[in-house]
Amino acid sequence: MQQIRFKKINKKLNFSQSKKIVLILKLENKTSILANLSNANIDKYLQEVIKSENLELFVIIQKNVIGYAILAKKPKFLIDNFEKFKFNFFFDLLFSLKFISIFNIVISKFKFDSMMISRFNKQIVSNSLNLNLLAIEKDHQSKGLGEKFLKYIFKNSKFKSKYIVCETDNIRSNSFYKKKLNFKSIGKKVRFPKFMDVLAKRL
Fold first, then answer.
1. CA pair distance 135, 31, nearest whole angstrom
2. Which pLDDT tens digit goes with each residue over 55-109?
3. How far is 193 from 141, CA to CA, in rounded Å?
4. Distance between CA 134 and CA 177 in Å, rounded?
5. Do 92 and 45 contact (CB within 8 A), yes or no?
6. Which residues does residue 8 pair with via DSSP β-bridges, in sequence order?
7. 158 dihedral zone (left: phi>0; alpha: psi -120 to 50; beta)
8. Phi then psi for 103, rounded to 5 degrees?
9. For residue 156, which of 77, 57, 85 has the smallest C-alpha distance?
10. Chain segment 152-176, per-residue pLDDT in tens
11. Do residues 22 and 45 make contact, with C-beta atoms less than 8 angstroms apart?
């Protein structure tokens, strides 16, 4: 069996890598806004992440990609990256009848989604690293890979901050971040159909 390794992606994804990340994203992060875009637009977003000075793409590789994560220097850079393709992405979601995703983008853009987070914790969120859309292929879950992957990301990211924050919408992910990595709940973010738990960890 081929050895599993972690890697930060610094150059354009090839077709096979991009296709695999899209597949994992759509299966494991299916409630995310990004997962509701077409495969071509997800690829466009991922390639832009790699080029960005404010975002990083990390992957787990065993022959091909079996997991991935996007890290942002601050949460606002995730939205800025969406802005570059806003019309393209909007019409993609509109023609696919993804009205809930459009609504979630609007409330995020105008920061209505953070109304259930205290002012102090909003400052932590807005000025911290943001771990976005981490996912591992189903066959490789529950084997300790997630914990090792995150430790690799913390060690190899070029970004520095007092805190790292993430969002989860399910009990399993929430438990993983809290029990394995000592994240703490700092509020909830308004999303439809599920609210997101906002978690933070001091680095």
1. 12
2. 999 999 999 999 999 999 999 898 787 778 888 898 999 999 899 998 988 888 8
3. 25
4. 11
5. no
6. 58
7. alpha
8. -60, -45
9. 57
10. 999 999 999 999 999 998 898 999 9
11. no
Cβ burial 69-101 (10 Å sphere, 16+ → b, else e): bbbbbbbebbeebbeeeeeebeebbeeeebeeb
Strand order, beta sheet including 196-202: 5-9, 55-62, 64-72, 129-136, 163-168, 196-202, 184-189
Strand duo 196-202 + 184-189: pairing: antiparallel
Comparing 66-70, 100-104, 183-187, 196-200, the range with the smallest average pLDDT is 100-104
Please report, for residues 19, 24, 135, the alpha-carbon distance to residue 139 in angstroms, rounded to integers and kept in the order given: 17, 11, 12
Cβ proximity of 72 and 78 under 8 Å: yes
Q: How confident is the model at residue 194 (pLDDT cuts 50, 70, 90)?
A: confident
